[in-house]
Structures are given as structure tokens and as C-alpha cells.
Amino acid sequence: AKSAGGSRFEFADAEADARAITRHGLTTALPAALERGEFFIEYQPLVHLGDGSVHGAEALVRWCHPQHGVLGPDRFIPLAEHTGLIVPLGRWVLQEAVRQARFWQTQTPYSAAGGPLRINVNLSPTQLHHPRLVADTVEVLERSGLEPGALCLELTESALIGADEDLLKPLRQLAEMGVDIALDDFGTGYSNLANLRRLPVSVLKLDRSFTRSMQQQPADPVDVKIVEGIVALAHSLELAVTVEGVETGAQAEQLRELGCDTAQGWYYARPGPPERLHALSLADAV
Ligand code: C2E
Ligand code: CA
Ligand code: CA
Ligand code: CA
Fold it and tell me: Alpha carbon of 131 to those of 126, 127, 171, 240: distances in Å?
């Protein structure tokens, strides 16, 4: 008979193996999965903090894997990024999300706050480096009939900080067309605030880590000060501030008082199928 220690060791080993196989298996399965249409998009509403009306939605991709069930993006986006499949996958997400947004607009032309419903799409660093980014985006917009001003591309801070002028050029072109560029997960990386000025961004998405302490009231006064400072800076640079991970009403209220513009989080809605957002914005319009 084996000692307990021995079997524990073997168990840990087998687990590591399974993980490695899954990682490898997932990576090699990605291209066929895209062809077979195993990816789908959930939408999470973005809400105006002022009046609670729906501003738009963020597209969040999922993989309905035939063996493993529904996998979140953290399981496969890094793999797709590594192999380059993120380019066709990202293009599919963009095309599908833009088409969906255009459909919402034809159903409910205006959200209660007055503007057309908007769509936020995540862009990975590899997509940013791809020479066809601008051409593909223009083509997707033209084919759908969505106006460029209704699209917001979200890029993480780490993809942009330190970016040279060549890398920023396609973003500038998109921004000139009216596409919004959002700096996602703001505050998680090494934030060079002075750098913000030279980036063609119009939205800061404040990471959940800043707003987490406001779930319970009273919130940590230092976090409150930090958010206050970021909002003041962002507004002085004419950037809008979106907050992520809003899970409680108290948190929403505090972030509204601090001057944040839009919010996203479970307090309003979890990511869900496109019909749900349609229902939300309809309810909103009456
Ligand atoms: P992200 O862009 O920061 O997206 C926000 C994440 O927070 C989403 O996780 C969302 O489901 C989750 N979330 C929303 N509200 C709350 C809340 O109130 N509390 C908590 N705890 N979480 C909340 P998800 O869907 O698992 O996506 C994870 C990441 O995967 C995203 O982070 C984004 O970086 C990436 N991602 C998703 N879709 C795409 C895509 O189409 N392309 C690329 N390149 N990346 C994507
Ligand atoms: Ca995002
Ligand atoms: Ca984020
Ligand atoms: Ca994140």
C-alpha cells in the first residue's frame, strides 16, 4: 500500500497533467471552435450614474466547449492571444457585437438619457498591432450601418502605456472617425498619469480594485480620496469615467457623488444574452 504522502503527491501530479493537457487541448481546439461557432457573446449593461438609464453594453466573449461546458474569457483569451487566433476571434466579436448594437438601435432608437445605445468591445494588444485594425473596423461599421460614435474599443492600460507613435496611429485614426477609446482596468498597472495626455482615449474605466472598498459603507477614506482625484484629473482632460464591479446600491450612490459618469456591475445586471439588454433599455425608455 502507498503512504498517504505518496498518493497525495501523485494526485497533485495528475492534476498538473490534466491542467497542461487542457491548456494544450484548448489551444489546439480554438481554430475549429471558431469555425464551428462555439463562441458566443454576453452583454453587460453600462448605466448612467445620474439617472440609472442604460448607456450601452460591453460585449464579453464565452466559449461553449463541447466537453468542458461554458468557459470564461480568462481561460482562453490568453491562449488565443499567444497563438494569434485572437485576431480572427476578435474580429468575429467586433462584427457580432456591432451587428447586435445596430439591431438594438433599430428596436429602441434612443435610450432614456437621449443618446443612441452604444457598444463596448475589448481589444487585445495583438489586435492593436495588426495592420488591418482600422480597415477591419471601418468595414464592420459600414456593413452594419452603426455610426462610429456608437462604438467604444476598450484597451488595457498595459497595452497602451509606453506605446510609441506608430502603435498609437491606428487608434488616432479611429478616434478621429468618432470611435471612443477606453482605457480599461485603469489603475491596475503602472499608471503614468502624465502619459494620459498623449493617448487618444476618451474614457477611463476604473478598475474594480478601487471601488471594492465602497461596497461596504463607510468606505476606506483613502480609496475615496484616490477616486476623487482620478475623477478630477479625468474630467480636466475631458475624459469620461466608467466604474466597474459595482455590486451594491451604497457603492453606486457613493460613486455617483464622487462624479463618476457611468457604471457597470452586478448591482445593475450580470452579463447576459442580448435579449436581456433589449428588455432593459425598453423598460428604460418608458
Ligand atoms: P474586463 O474587460 O475587465 O471585463 C469585466 C469583467 O468583470 C467581466 O469578466 C465581467 O463579467 C466581470 N464583472 C462585471 N461586473 C462585475 C461585478 O459587479 N463584480 C465582479 N466580481 N465581476 C464583475 P469576464 O466576462 O470573465 O471577462 C474577463 C476578461 O476577459 C475581461 O475583463 C476582458 O479583459 C477579457 N475579455 C472578455 N471578452 C473579450 C473579448 O471579446 N476580447 C478580448 N480581447 N478580451 C475579452
Ligand atoms: Ca473591458
Ligand atoms: Ca476592466
Ligand atoms: Ca479586468
Answer: 10, 9, 12, 28
Question: Considering only CA atoms, which residue is closest to atom 11 of ligand 1?
Answer: 271
**Cα(258)–Cα(224) distance, rounded to whole angstroms?**
8
Q: Answer yes or no: is the ipTM higher than 0.90.
A: yes
Residue having the nearest C-alpha atom to atom 30 of ligand 1 = 73
**Nearest ligand, measured from the Cα of 58:** 2
| Residue nearest ligand 1's atom 21 by CA | 245
Radius of gyration of the chain (CA): 21
Pocket test for ligand 1, best of 122, 183, 209, 247 (most atoms within 8 A of CB): 122
Query: Would you say 119 and 143 are in contact if contact means Cβ atoms under 8 Å apart?
Result: no
**What are 124-160's pLDDT values in tens digits?**
999 999 999 999 999 999 999 999 999 999 999 888 8
Give me the pLDDT at residue 212, please.
Answer: 86
Would you give the distance in Å from CA 132 to the centre of its chain?
Answer: 21
